[in-house]
Design a protein that fits this description.
alpha+beta; eight-stranded antiparallel sheet; six-stranded mixed sheet; 27% strand; globular
Length: 385
């Protein structure tokens, strides 16, 4: 499922952002431009399918800490500097909205302030949700709708609407609680696809990193988010995955080197043979940059590629000489999975521009608001409460 549009409204510096995304999308910009906020917004969307959306926002401090802190909208005078930025009379409800769409399905969720009597005031309430076919929400292509506690699904055979739930809790999503193989089949398919999204922003390479310790050797087609099962993941690629591509990836970055997994049936460790050395180097001896490159290789060459993989600043701790091989690896991996990459490494960006077609989104801030430079916002319609 290829995402072609991503929309965020009211989350941190993202007052109202709608972006076109492609098979390989680069999100870049200066420090503080909103790259991390956009990454977290993507994670929140994925956590909707896991039933963790409200809890994750509560962990960030609730809506009081995550809502856009500026005015509801900027006047021309504010944008030109002729008038100081000031609050305006609110015309809409307090809202944090997240959504995405592709050629097949689209989804959006609208969160608002909890009831004053709610015992957990950090928990935002889900006010509205919608799921539709195609890129643009409309009444004709809408097939699942939630307003307050009421969820309605369109029957696949007759096109008639039925009430799927009239008592859905404000902290539960219709994605997790109203999917069924009959009338909610599309909802069920979308949920499983969203659960398949994969995020990597915490691949540890420090001295105590799990990847540096012996690991249980078991079938591991998906690298853990912290890289703790690296040995098992590489062994799985060597056994049933793209072994030659892994070897070529290592040769591209480290000429003459070979990656091995040593150990018995119980535990194993990663080792690397290097030219001129009489023994392979144990994973404990590898530099942070070398280990990070191995982790990224295991993630991107997974025998079970996800629909979408999101990488947050993968260039961290990599030597500049490894950025061109990483760019080539990203381009090759994007043939199997949609990749959204957050980075501000100019060397990596130049490599991506040279080696493959990318959708580049450069973020900048104006009056505290994140905007996409030199890009027209595509059309987007939010569900009504």
């Amino acid at each position: 499922m290829l995402i072609t549009r991503l929309a965020v409204s009211g989350y941190r510096s993202l007052r109202d952002v709608v972006l076109d995304v492609g098979q390989l999308t680069l999100i870049t910009g200066a420090n503080g431009s909103g790259k991390s906020s956009l990454y977290r917004a993507l994670r929140l969307l994925a956590e909707t399918a896991q039933g963790r959306l409200v809890a994750s926002l509560a962990a960030e401090g609730g809506l009081s800490s995550t809502l856009w802190a500026g005015p509801e909208r900027f006047s021309r005078e504010m944008l030109s500097g002729r008038q100081a930025v000031q609050g305006t009379v609110r015309t809409g409800p307090v809202s944090l909205r997240l959504g995405f769409a592709g050629a097949d399905f689209g989804y959006a969720v609208d969160l608002g302030l909890p009831d004053p009597t709610h015992p957990f005031q950090r928990d935002p309430e889900i006010k509205a949700e919608a799921m539709w076919t195609g890129e643009m929400l409309g009444r004709a292509n809408l097939f699942a709708e939630r307003r307050g506690p009421l969820v309605s699904l369109r029957r696949a055979d007759s096109g008639e609407w039925r009430h799927a739930s009239g008592e859905l809790s404000a902290f539960d999503s219709m994605v997790t609680h109203c999917a069924d193989p009959a009338d909610g089949l599309e909802l069920l398919l979308m949920r499983e696809r969203m659960r398949n999204w994969r995020f990597y922003d915490n691949l540890r390479t420090d001295a105590d990193a799990p990847a540096r310790r012996p690991q249980v050797m078991t079938y591991t087609p998906v690298l853990a988010s912290d890289g703790g099962d690296l040995a098992a993941a590489i062994a799985t690629i060597l056994a049933i995955g793209e072994r030659e591509e892994l070897e070529e990836t290592i040769e591209d970055a480290f000429p003459g080197c070979q990656v091995l997994v040593q150990g018995g049936d119980d535990h194993g460790v990663v080792e690397m043979r290097q030219p001129g050395l009489l023994r392979p180097l144990h994973v404990r001896e590898l530099s942070d940059g070398t280990l990070r490159y191995l982790l990224l290789s295991a993630a991107l060459l997974s025998p079970r590629p996800p629909d979408i993989m999101v990488l947050n600043e993968p260039e961290a701790s990599l030597h500049p000489s490894l950025l061109a091989p990483l760019a080539r690896l990203l381009v090759r991996a994007s043939a199997r999975t949609q990749i959204i990459l957050v980075s501000h490494s100019e060397r990596l960006i130049q490599g991506l521009r040279r080696d493959g077609g990318i959708e580049e989104i450069r973020l900048a801030k104006q009056l505290g608001e994140t905007r996409a430079e030199d890009a027209d916002s595509p059309r987007w319609v939010w569900p009504k409460r």
